[in-house]
Amino acid sequence: MLLLPWNPLLFPMFMSLDVAKCSSCLFDSCLGMPYPQNLETAKEVEAIVRKNGAVPATVAILDGKPCIGLSMEELERLATLGTRAQKTARRDIAHVVASRGNGATTVSATMYFASMVGISVFVTGGIGGVHRHGEQTMDISSDLTELGRTPVAVISAGVKSILDIPRTLEYLETQGVCVATYKTNEFPAFFTEKSGCKVTCRVDTPEDCARLIDANMKLKLGTGILIAVPIPKEHSASGNMIESAIQSALREARDKNITGNAETPFLLARVNEITGGASLASNIALVKNNSLVGAKIAVALAQLREREHSNRGKNHEREDVLSIKNCFHSEGTCLHKMIASLANN
Known about the structure:
Helix content: 40-55%
Distance between the termini: 64 Å
Low-confidence stretches: 1-7, 12-21
Number of helices: 12
Largest sheet: 11 strands, mixed
Order of helices and strands: EHEHEEHEHEHEHHEHEEHEHHH
Strand content: 5-15%
Number of strands: 11
C-alpha cells in the first residue's frame, strides 16, 4: 500500500501495483489543445503506452482531489472543461485542492505528484522555459526549478519553440539538470527537429535512457532528467513558417498585455491559427511520438530494476550458503580441537 502525506486519488488499477517497480508512464493534463483534439489525443497516447507494455496514468485535480490515473469518464470531463480547469503548476496545487477546484496539471505539478507515488517516467509535449525577453521580464517557468529538485525523468520534444531555447538550457545547467537528447546531438525545437543548440549527453536506446535514470536515482542527485526527443521528420513543420508565426503572436501578446501563465496558451493558439492548423497537427504528432518513446523507456527501466532485484536475491542466497558452510567449518574445527585435547589428557 502507498502511504502518502495526504491522499491523492489513485486510479483503482494502481492500488494493486507497486508503482515504483511497474512500468508506469505519467502524463500531464495541461495539453494546451482545444476540444475535442485534447480528448482524442489523450485517449490515443494512453493506447500507445498500453500497446508498448507500460501503464499510462494521466494526472489532474478533480473537485479538489489529486488524481493519478484517470478513468475514461474523468478524461472526458477534464477535456470538456477545457480552460475552465485551472492551469495548475506546483504553486497552485494547494489553492486548487483547498478550493475543491479542477486543475489541469503542468509539468511542475505532474512531476511533484509522480515523485510522491514513486513513478520515474513522465511524458509531455514540451516543457516550459525562459520566455523570450526573459532577461527583462524574469518570466521563467517553474518547470525548470522543478527539474532542479525533483528526481523524475521528463520525456518531451524539448522546449516549446515560443520560448528562448538557449537561455532555457543555460538555466537548466545552473539547476544541475541532466539534459539528454534521443538519437541526436542537437536539442530539438518542439515543432522542428533542430534548434542549433548542441547537447553533450546523447542516448540512443530506451535501455540507455533507463540506465541514465537508474544512475541518477542511485546517486541520489535529487534532480530530474530531461530527455529531448525530436519530432519525427515527416511531421516537422517549416522552421521559417513557425518562427514567423511566433514573432507575430508575440507582438499581439505584447499589444494586448498578455503575460504570466496566460501567455503560453495564447501564443500556442495564435501560432496554430496563423499556420492554418499546421502547428496543432505537429503538436499532436510529437506527443504521440514522445508517448511511444516514453513507454519503451518505462518498460526498459522496469526490466532493469527487476534484473537487479533478482540478482540481489541470488547474491543473498549465495551469502547464506557461504555463511552456513563457514559455520560448519568453524564448528568442525573447534570440535576437532576439543577431541584432540581430551585425547591428550
